[in-house]
Amino acid sequence: MKLAILHELNAERAARRPAILVTDTESGEQRLVKAADFPKDPLRAELDKQLRMGKSASVEAGGKKLFLNVYAPTAKLVIVGAVHISQALAPLARSLGYDVTVVDPRTAFASPERFPDIPLVAEWPDTALPPLNVDAYTAFVAVTHDPKIDDPALLHAFERNCFYIGALGSRKTHAKRGDRLRAQGAKDSDIARIHAPIGLAIGAVSPSEIAVSIMAEITAVLRLPPKEKEEAA
Amino acid sequence: MLDRDEDILKAAEDWQKAGRGVALATVVETWGSAPRPAGSSLVINDQGTFLGSVSGGCVEGAVVTEAMDVIESGKPKMLEFGVADETAWNVGLSCGGTIRVFVEKVG
After folding, report:
1. Cα distance from A162 to chain B (closest Cα, Å)?
2. Measuring CA to CA, which of A6, A220, B64, B89 is 20 to 30 A from B74?
3. CA B9 to CA A131: how far, in whole Å?
4. Three-class SS of residue A46?
């Protein structure tokens, strides 16, 4: 690998931007394709698929054997609300490979006793969220049921283009939330991005089951191609 | 996304900048029950120090030896490892799978 390519790849990884290294395994020739350049690449279909799956693979193209080495950032999950559901959601998400952080200004909720080993930030969203570097590889859920906490958190998630945004609450609650967020400058397209009621409809009852339904929905958004994603939702 | 390996590529860059000869070995194909998935890698320097893993320990020794050649020659190599043959002194994978490992020089 040329040093220039290695340097560029490490810079993309440090910036949490996905990239795929394409190697001709016979000649040793290599090129780095950044995710932003996928649409104009001749291998775009293969690149898109492997990145979505987070899987490196050998492919044949134009009579050449190519190895596509996928470098995707570790996905993050930001949970706003140190509630009962979050106590089940945080360890489940971690077992799925997410870097998890729980945010809740209410110190009685955001206590290490309730969340052993999970990073906790007991601050209001305006203070807590900016240092977390919420990005396109972040799933973001707001589950406090308290608009004073959930609303500013969701506004932050819109700005950061999270791949998944979910919020707890019935359709009725969600309609009211939409009105409030619009009044604070959110666009209709932002509101439409919120998965609410949160989670796949699997008849979840207990906090643990709701956690499963939320992680199932996040997984679907992360892994399914766009068309099948619509069908699952 | 699940891998939380040591930062192999960072080490490759650091070692290269420190003037070491460096090679990178990457699993590019697997068949059967392979210990590590495609994309797993190992970085090796000319002192024989290595970081990472391509097989969870079964064939790293052989990969490091081949990597020394690659650092010397600058030419990439494709290595293939299958089931360990205990009667011969070949290294292999006791799990029954086969892996192909691409070894290239860095820099």
Report:
1. 16
2. B89
3. 26
4. helix
The token duo for A136 is: 């396109």
Judged by a CB distance cut-off of 8 A, whether residue B43 touches chain A is: no
Q: Which two tokens stand for residue B72?
A: 């010397």
Over the stretch A58-117, which tens digit does the pLDDT of each residue have?
999 989 999 999 999 999 999 999 999 999 999 999 999 999 999 999 999 999 999 999
Residues of chain B contacting A97 with CB distance shorter than 8 Å: 1-2
Which three-class secondary structure state does DSSP give residue A121? strand
Whether residue A147 lies within 8 A of chain B, CB to CB, comes out as: no
User: Beta strands A99-103 and A76-80: pairing type?
Assistant: parallel
Q: Interface pTM (ipTM) of the complex? A: 0.82
Contacts of B37 in chain A (CB under 8 A): 55-56
From the list A140, A67, A60, A103, the residue with the least C-alpha distance to B29 is A67
Residue A219's alpha-carbon distances to A27, A138, A192, A230, B1, in angstroms, are: 37, 12, 19, 13, 12
Strands (E), A62-184: 64-71, 76-80, 99-103, 120-121, 138-142, 164-167
Comparing C-alpha atoms, which of A199, A198, A147, A133 is closest to residue A177?
A: A147
CA angle B85, B90, B96 (to 5 degrees): 45
